[in-house]
C-alpha cells in the first residue's frame, strides 16, 4: 500500500487569488450595451459569478446568450488586466507553500487558455505548478476540474480554496478540506451554508494547516 503523502492544494482563481471582479463584470455588461439590450445591475451579475458564462447570460437574456458569450470572449481578453490584481498576501502564501513542499494548482471555471494567460499576466505563473481550466467537462460544483488538476500534479489533494459555494461544494465532492475566503464573490453568510472547514477574510490561516513537509 502506498504511503506517499498527498501534497496537492487547489485554488479557485477569480475572487480567490485575484481581485478580478471589476474587469469580469465590465466585460460581462459590455455585450448588453453593444447589442442594445437591457443591462442588468452589477449586484445581479456579481451574484452569479462562478457559474458558466452561458448560464449567467441565460439568466438575463436567454435568446441572446450565445451572442453575448461571443461578445464577452472578444472583449475580456483585451481588457482582463485593467484593474485586476492579486489579493494582498497571495504571492507570499503561494511562495511559502511551495517552499514547504506542496504542489499548487488553479482549478477554475475559466477556459484553460484564458486562465493561463491571466495567471501569467498577474505574475502568479511561476508560483503555481499547474493551471487547470474547465474545458469540455462539467463545471463546479462538479469536482471534475479538481480531479483534472490533481491528476496533472500527480498527487492527492488536501485543500480546495475558493470564494463561492460552488468552489466549496466541488472541493467537498472531491474529498478535500475546504477553505473559504470572504474577500471575493460570496458573502460570509452564504459561504457558511456550505460548511467549509475554514471561513476566513484572507489566506493566512491556510499556512497554519500546512506545515513544512518532511
Features:
two-stranded antiparallel ribbon, EC 3.1.3.18, HAD_sf, phosphoglycolate phosphatase, six-stranded parallel β-sheet, 43% helix, 10 helices, 214 residues, alpha/beta, HAD-like_sf, globular, 8 strands
How would you explain this protein's 3D organization?
By secondary structure, the protein is of the alpha/beta class. It is built from 10 helices and 8 strands. It has helices at residues 21-34, 42-46, 53-60, 65-79, 90-99, 112-121, 144-153, 165-173, 188-192, 204-209; strands at 8-11, 18-19, 85-86, 103-107, 130-132, 157-162, 177-181, 198-200. Strand 4, helix 6 (112-121) and strand 5 form a beta-alpha-beta unit. It is globular. The model has no long low-confidence stretch (mean pLDDT 95).
What is this structure's SSE topology?
Elements: E1 8-11, E2 18-19, H1 21-34, H2 42-46, H3 53-60, H4 65-79, E3 85-86, H5 90-99, E4 103-107, H6 112-121, E5 130-132, H7 144-153, E6 157-162, H8 165-173, E7 177-181, H9 188-192, E8 198-200, H10 204-209
Parallel strand pairs: 1-4, 1-6, 4-5, 6-7, 7-8
Antiparallel strand pairs: 2-3
Rg, Cα atoms, Å: 17 Å
The separation of the N and C termini measures 20 Å
Structural class: alpha/beta
- Run of helices and strands: EEHHHHEHEHEHEHEHEH
Low-confidence stretches: none
The proportion of strand residues reads: 5-15%
Shape: globular
Q: Please, what is the average pLDDT?
A: 95
Number of helices: 10
Question: How is the biggest beta sheet arranged?
Answer: 6 strands, parallel
According to DSSP, the number of beta strands is: 8
Helix content: 40-55%
**Strand neighbour order, sheet with most strands:** 5-4-1-6-7-8
Family: Belongs to the HAD-like hydrolase superfamily. CbbY/CbbZ/Gph/YieH family.
Keywords: Hydrolase
Pathway: Organic acid metabolism; glycolate biosynthesis; glycolate from 2-phosphoglycolate: step 1/1
GO molecular function: hydrolase activity
Amino acid at each position: 500500500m502506498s504511503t506517499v503523502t498527498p501534497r496537492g492544494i487547489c485554488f479557485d482563481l477569480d475572487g480567490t487569488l485575484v481581485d478580478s471582479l471589476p474587469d469580469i463584470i465590465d466585460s460581462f455588461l459590455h455585450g448588453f450595451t453593444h447589442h442594445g439590450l437591457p443591462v442588468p445591475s452589477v449586484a445581479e451579475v456579481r451574484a452569479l459569478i462562478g457559474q458558466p458564462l452561458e448560464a449567467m447570460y441565460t439568466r438575463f437574456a436567454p435568446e441572446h446568450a450565445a451572442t453575448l458569450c461571443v461578445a464577452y470572449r472578444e472583449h475580456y481578453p483585451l481588457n482582463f488586466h485593467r484593474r485586476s490584481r492579486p489579493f494582498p498576501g497571495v504571492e507570499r502564501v503561494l511562495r511559502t507553500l511551495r517552499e514547504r513542499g506542496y504542489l499548487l494548482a488553479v482549478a477554475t471555471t475559466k477556459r484553460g487558455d484564458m486562465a493561463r494567460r491571466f495567471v501569467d499576466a498577474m505574475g502568479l505563473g511561476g508560483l503555481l505548478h499547474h493551471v487547470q481550466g474547465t474545458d469540455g467537462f462539467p463545471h463546479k460544483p462538479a469536482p471534475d476540474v479538481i480531479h483534472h488538476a490533481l491528476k496533472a500534479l500527480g498527487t492527492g489533494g488536501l485543500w480546495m480554496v475558493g470564494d463561492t459555494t460552488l468552489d466549496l461544494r466541488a472541493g467537498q465532492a472531491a474529498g478535500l478540506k475546504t477553505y473559504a475566503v470572504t474577500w471575493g464573490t460570496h458573502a460570509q453568510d452564504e459561504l457558511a451554508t456550505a460548511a467549509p472547514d475554514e471561513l476566513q477574510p484572507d489566506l493566512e490561516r491556510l499556512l497554519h494547516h500546512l506545515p513544512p513537509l518532511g
